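Render this sequence as a predicted structure.
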Amino acid sequence: MSHDNGPSLWSTFSAGLWRENPIFAIVIGLCPTMAVTNTVTNALVMGVATAFVLMGSSAMVSALRKVTPGPVRITIYIIIIATFVSAVDWALAALLPLAHKQLGAFISLIVVNCIILGRAEAFAARNPVLPSVLDALGMAAGFTLAMLMISTPREILGSGTLLGLPLFGPRFEPWVIMVLPPGGFLTMATELTILAWWRHRSAERQALAEAT
């Protein structure tokens, strides 16, 4: 199934998971990625919050795309995004006060997350509501997946826990650097290197298969 003779809905959704993953492919939205991936819980909460804002703002930007004046479109996008961020901020403060306190200012900074404003400008403003929501869902899922891939080894090695549950005995010595910002960059660099190697190997195999 396709929309307006463009990519299929599945292709629109799946792009953010891998081909255009915001962290591992486009490499944007790194500020919250480095700051909150010291634990898996923080990464999950940030991922869900970002998904709500991204999907809600993309749907509204798409619905209003034909009546949004071009000269002030970015201002309107930011107002829409800020509205959804405020709703998330209040909901977390009421329902998950501990997570809200740990994430601190990074919830409010979702307003200026390049992923959200970028999808509003590059996709939602040019496409109908359903594809825009699917694009937002795929990007949010890819963002959350990448955050989990980074936060899991950081929490395990830096705290000796997973989702707050202890994994090792009392003799385990945590790698303190892993819960600090340098640990985030180290983990992400390692995973980017592995992904680049895997992509290179896949390309070589495909080229070999086509040659034979």
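Summary. Residues 9-211 form one domain. The chain has one domain: 9-211.
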